[in-house]
Amino acid sequence: MMDWAAGKDDPVLALDNISVQFDKRCVLKNVNIRVYPGEFIGLIGSNGAGKSTLLKVILGLLSPTQGTVQVGGPADGKGERLMGYVPQKLFLAPDIPLRGRDLVALGLDGHRWGIPLFSKERKRRVSEILEAVDAARYADAPVGQLSGGEQQRLLIAQALLTDPQILLLDEPLSNLDIKSAYEVIQLVSRIGREKGIAVILVAHDMNPLLGVMDRVVYLADGKALMGQIPDVFRSDVLSDLYGYPVEVLNVQGRIMVVGGRNFENNGYPREAICCESNEVL
Question: What domains can you pick out in the chain, each with its CATH number?
Fold first, then answer.
């Protein structure tokens, strides 16, 4: 496999030999990942493959059993954080007394009680980031009454407020319609390229990301493969990763991962394989 990152800047994220074990169950096994400035990474894997565990390790919320995590260079002294994070789910009651700009501002003051007080500089920064994600029209709207796609834009703005080097998004497309999901993907991709922010996006379906991903991280059985799509999504490569036969199909430009011809003969049910990429199982 070719070194995609040859000649690039130093990585903003380096994971070396990361393993995570809970009791006797090994969730991640010797995971090695390099992510570079402005790169868009899709993190793909079945339920229970370790995606959420890997995000927790990157965020520093979980210490690995083995291995090291290095995130970017130091902050520039102005309090900027190295990582912005958009969680998988956020329930906002329809009657919550919170405007769009208030939700975004929590990216600066979320550790404090109550609604943040705005200085002129904070107002300017919030307005600037709302414009950047094309959400200025939601600034004074009650967030609980906005659509899922509109709320997602505000959460992305919140995560970008401190100019992070890395933007982590945990399944941001899961509750969106097709149009909203496409808009969120294009938005995140554009901002990552323009600002040189590395993006790691966890998704159930890889296909919406095909036009924007630089590389993909595929998790299965606690192990990880990282590379460009043609290098990772091959029958022989994924069969080796899973330890049993897998077929990768390209149907009208959409990638599907299915159990191989000898899959059931080896004692494995066809539905056992799930790469969550519009698979046919």
Answer: 1-73+165-232 (3.40.50.300), 91-163 (no CATH), 246-281 (no CATH)
